[in-house]
Structures are given as C-alpha cells and as structure tokens.
User: What shape does this take?
Amino acid sequence: MVRVKYILIAILVVIFGIWAAFTLFQSEEKKVKKQFHLLSKWASKETGENTFVMAQKVKNIGKLFAEHCELKANVISFTGRYTAEEISSYAARARLSFSNLSLQFYDFNVAFPEEGLAKVTLTAKLTGRTTTGEGVDETHELECALKKIENKWFFSYMEVVEVLKK
Amino acid sequence: MRDGNKKIHQFFFPSLTSKFLIRASLVALFAYLFFGHLCTPILIKGQSMEPTYRNGSINFCWKLRYIFSEPKKYDVVAVRFAGNKVMLLKRVIAVEGEHVEFRNGKLFVDGKEMDEPYVHYPCNWNLPPRQVEKDCVYVVGDNRNMPIENHHFGQAPTKRIIGGPLW
Assistant: This one.
C-alpha cells in the first residue's frame, strides 16, 4: 500500500514537471505562434466595441510589426513596404468598416531557416459583418516571416498566397 | 434475467483486464488513424456548393480517393490551404490543357457548351477563355448565383487536392 502511494506521488511529480517545462520554458516555435495569437486577439472586434478598447487594440497591432514590413496582398490591393505605424492606421481604418470581426489562424508550419528568422505558412480565416450589414467570410493561405529583435519576434513579411488562380 | 443484467453491466462497465485494455487501445488507434488521417469529418461552411452540399451539413473527406488516380472532370474535390484544417470544397470543371470560358453564365470547355445538371441557380458570369496549366485543374462551386468577383474559384495545382467528400 505504501509502495502504491509512492508510485502515485512520483507520477504526479513527473506530470507536474512536464507541465512546468512546457509552460515555463517556451520554445521559439511557441513564441512565434504567440505573435499570431496576439494578432488574432487584437485584430478581432466585438459588436459595440468602445473607442478606448479600439485604440488600445490598434496600438497593440502596431507593436507586433517590425519597423518596416513588406506586405503582398493582391486580393485587397495592399502591396508594398510599410512602417508599423502605417499598418496600425490601416488596421484602424479596416476595423472601422466592420461591426464585428474575427481573425483566426490554423495549420501553422513554422521553420527557422537561419538564426533570428522564422518562416511561417498558415491558413487565415476572416469572418465578420460590415457596418452596412454585409457578411464577410474569407480564407487565405499566408506566407509570413518574423524577425527576432531583442529576444522578441516581429512580423517583417506577409504574403497572401493565391491558392486558386482565376 | 440476472445474467442479462450482468452482461449489460459488463458492457458499460467492463473489467479492466489486460485483454480489454489491448482491445480498447487498438480500437482507439484505428479510430485515430482512420478518422484523423484517412477519412476526416468535415463541417461544410458557406453556400458556394449549394444545393449539392448545404451550409452546415456534415460529411467526411476521403483522402485516399486520388492516391492512384487524378481528379476527373465533374469530381467534387477538397482543396487544401496551408494544412488540412480548412479546405475548399469545389467541383472540377476542366483539366490540364483545356480552355475554360463563361458566356452569360454558360460554361464552355474548349469552345463546347457543357451540360451542368448540378447548377440550379441562375448565373450571368462572363469570363474570357483561359487554358488550364500543367498539373492543374479548374475548380468552381455549384452555386454561381453571386457576382463573379465574390466567388472563390480558379485553377488549383493537383498537389493541393487532398481528397473528396465521401458522399
């Protein structure tokens, strides 16, 4: 009986150890994915969002991008090299045209081709309703690059991949 | 009667014997491989394939469909994005080398008007002819009752086709 008790305690200690290792020591891949989760959180909008929350979210979006970020999105005619501030203001304008908005990311493929650089391919799904009442449901594949600056990852490149070519 | 009750009890609350654990593990492994990789459950969202596939209906994506063959004309296929969690369900209307064109909502392949019994809603699309590139197929939804700009369709590489719906 005593032996069983010790085995159970040992199992619990091992489980706690594994949990602690996963939670406390984040891998670089987890840190990269976290930036996407933050982008999803701050780009999304709930109906009736107040001005203060909106301003805070837009400010936070800008903090996720490197000083200069290259964007290639032919679907929305948004291609070029932009500063984090320009991206923030574009995000603010885009969010204003929606009454509610949800941005979700799926199927992450993260690679680290060189030190301080992460390349990510993923699927982005944007759903919501415009202020004019029109429903939006867009899905695109994205190719992104993130740069590590002072131990933090920042978006430096984003391209919308054309899956179906008209 | 007592024997019957015992059997029912044994069915719902089986004794944790080694044989039972092996059997349960094998069933779990088979279910994981089958439903996780070969025949994945899918929830259809959107109206682009109506009325063939309704918004909100459930189906399975059979991933072994194109292991030994290429997608054929009129097949309904699943086109992947970056992975397998989100995919497009579309119908193949032309294969590599063929010319696709829409004239007043009618589909023309290599200049010949095609019969499309699966299209039930009115359509007024116009699309100049274009040739389907090598190792690609041209896919469109069955519901074309919306402006052409709002419909997600076009040429997809066959390597992006991961299977088709089970029914």
Q: What stands out?
A: Chain B touches chain A at residues 45-46, 79, 81-86, 88, 90, 127, 139, 152-156, 160 (CB under 8 Å). The two ends of chain B are 43 Å apart (CA to CA). The first strand of chain B starts at residue 39 and ends at 43. The CA atoms of residues 75 and 92 of chain B lie 5 Å apart.
